[in-house]
Every structure is written in structure tokens, then in C-alpha cells.
Design a protein that fits this description.
binds coenzyme A; 30% strand; Aminopeptidase; 183 residues
Length: 183
């Protein structure tokens, strides 16, 4: 894994993936993900989002990077150059009971699922947060039913913290947390 420091962005190279800043060309593939009911099923109220919403999300991801020096990376498959998803760090404002903390999250296009890409990308993003940024209070939150996300949290070495309700959508979630020995 190779970290490279940029103006307000970092890039990370893994075996198959490039974690990088957001580009204008990312809007169309990201909007397609946000418009896919299977991708959005366990996110918030589970409803798909519009192309305009996707544009606003990308702008907010860029703002986070500029303001905090960390955020959600665009994830590109090196073999094709395609944007296949995102992973990285954000603030879980939707769940005030876990604040202050930083959340690691991920979202990938359906055609890329099942190949270990999310695990590969999230492992690199977590290492960035802990080793490069010195962030220690890292949580991850998934809605009950999202077994693939729960599995990734376990593979990252995170441990169960609590089951609770996301007040923004009244759905049951589980919180995982990075244990002390990883900090
Ligand atoms: C969650 C998501 C990123 C997983 O992507 P992926 O590329 O398939 O993930 P990976 O292949 O790296 O790893 C998934 C792991 O979960 C396992 N898995 C897949 N489906 C599962 C299920 N229903 N129950 C339990 N484990 C499951 C896989 O076997 C794999 O584990 P393994 O490496 O031990 O075999 C992808 O499904 C996605 O983008 N979903 C929509 C967005 C989303 O829900 N984001 C997270 C919100 S918390």
C-alpha cells in the first residue's frame, strides 16, 4: 500500500485499486450507484437518490476533505480505470450517541461486488486514518440485514459495540468499533 500526499487529497495505491480524490467524470457512475435500489437498500431509509443528490454528495465529500484533511475516497479499479465506489472516513452525525467519533464506510457498484474490492479498499482507508491521520475513535455502522458490511467490519478487526436505532430512519443498526489494541 502506498500513500501519496496531495494538496488537500491523498491517494492510496493498493494491489488492484486506486483510492483518490473526486473528479467531474465520477458523477455519472456515482449517480448510477445512488439510483440503484440494491445498492441503496441498507442506506438511510433505503430509497434511491437522484443524479442531483449524487452531485451534492460529491460536493460535500470534497468539502470534508478540504475542511478536515480526511474524507471519502473515490475508488477506481486500476485494470479498467472505472469508478467502482467509495470508502473512507466521515462523521456519523446521523447517530449522535456515538459522537465524537469518526466512521469508516463504503459503497460499491453492484457489478463490482463479491470480488473483495470493498475489503481491500476499506483496509487501506482504515490504515490511512489510523497511521497517517492518527485517528483512533473509529466506528462503523450497518443496518441489520447488511451481512456483507458486517463481515467487512469483522475483517477490519473491529468489534461489536452496540445495537441501536438510527433516529433518522428508525431502522435497527449495529455499531462496530476499532478496539484499543489497534489504536
Ligand atoms: C457492502 C459492500 C460494499 C460489499 O462489497 P463487496 O465488494 O462485495 O465486499 P467484499 O467482497 O470485499 O467482502 C464482503 C464480505 O462479506 C461476505 N458476504 C457477502 N454477502 C454476505 C451476507 N449476506 N452475509 C454475510 N457475509 C456476506 C463475503 O463473503 C465477504 O467476506 P469474505 O471475504 O470473508 O468471503 C457492497 O455490498 C455494497 O456496496 N453494498 C451497498 C452499499 C452499502 O450497503 N454500503 C454499506 C452501508 S453500511
Amino acid at each position: 500500500m502506498c500513500f501519496k500526499r496531495g494538496m488537500s487529497h491523498h491517494t492510496i495505491n493498493t494491489k488492484r485499486l486506486l483510492l483518490r480524490g473526486w473528479k467531474p467524470d465520477d458523477h455519472a457512475p456515482f449517480a448510477a450507484m445512488c439510483g440503484d435500489a440494491d445498492v441503496m437498500r441498507y442506506i438511510g431509509n433505503g430509497k434511491t437518490k437522484s443524479a442531483d443528490d449524487a452531485a451534492r454528495y460529491i460536493a460535500s465529500f470534497q468539502n470534508e476533505w478540504n475542511e478536515r484533511g480526511f474524507g471519502l475516497f473515490a475508488v477506481e479499479a486500476k485494470q479498467t480505470g472505472d469508478l467502482i465506489g467509495f470508502t473512507g472516513l466521515s462523521t456519523p452525525d446521523f447517530l449522535p450517541e456515538v459522537l465524537p467519533s469518526v466512521e469508516i464506510g463504503w459503497r460499491f457498484s453492484k457489478s463490482s461486488w463479491g470480488k473483495g474490492f470493498a475489503s481491500e479498499a476499506a483496509t487501506a482507508a482504515l490504515a490511512f486514518g489510523v497511521n497517517e491521520m492518527g485517528i483512533t475513535d473509529i466506528v462503523s455502522i450497518y443496518q441489520i440485514g447488511n451481512g456483507a458490511s458486517a463481515r467487512i467490519m469483522q475483517k477490519l478487526g473491529m468489534i461489536f459495540d452496540r445495537r441501536t436505532i438510527d433516529p433518522t430512519c428508525e431502522r435497527a443498526v449495529e455499531v462496530y468499533r476499532l478496539p484499543h489494541q489497534y489504536r
